Amino acid sequence: VENIKLDNAGLTEDKLLGGRVKFRQPVSGYRVASDSVLLASAVSAV
Fold first, then answer.
1. Which of 5, 16, 38, 39 is deepest in the core (most CB within 10 A)?
2. Interatomic CA distance for residues 45 and 14, integer angstroms
3. Is the pTM here over 0.85, yes or no?
């Protein structure tokens, strides 16, 4: 996970899978786990 701290609103912009998935989340408090995204990328679509 690559993250960039955004000075406005206490958010970070995070990237997964080489930047193909981008999302913003709070610096503190609940943060998204990458497990489900990595698991989904490891299996083929039905």
1. 16
2. 25
3. no
